[in-house]
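Could you please consider the sequence and fold following this short note?
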Amino acid sequence: MSTAQPKIGIGAVVFHRDKVLLVQRKNPPAAGQWAIPGGKIKLGENLQQAAEREIMEETGIRIHAREPIYAFDLIQHNAQGDCETHYVVVDVEADYIAGQAQAADDAADVRWVSAEELQTLPVNATTRHLLQSRYNFG
């Protein structure tokens, strides 16, 4: 019997000048896809602290994180059907404070994306669903 537990991830939806902040993932899962920036919550951090730290580390953007708006599971199984990874991801809304977008940490690229440009990028399905259903964006 496994004692492994799901890991908790955090993401932040940040809009600035009618564009949303997205990162292109460098590593699996979803390598090469564009998604809401974020990462893992550290022990002792609340959701807002984790979001503010992760967005700064991944994108160079300072934010003020607010309340959760979306949560989902990211579960991957191997060929034998065993669970290899399980993340519970919580996305929060956040306000842009300052900074120039630059890819760091595990982001291959980062940019402010317009609704029109969103249509031309390989965007993660969960990110696309969140932006369309919650913000009518894209």
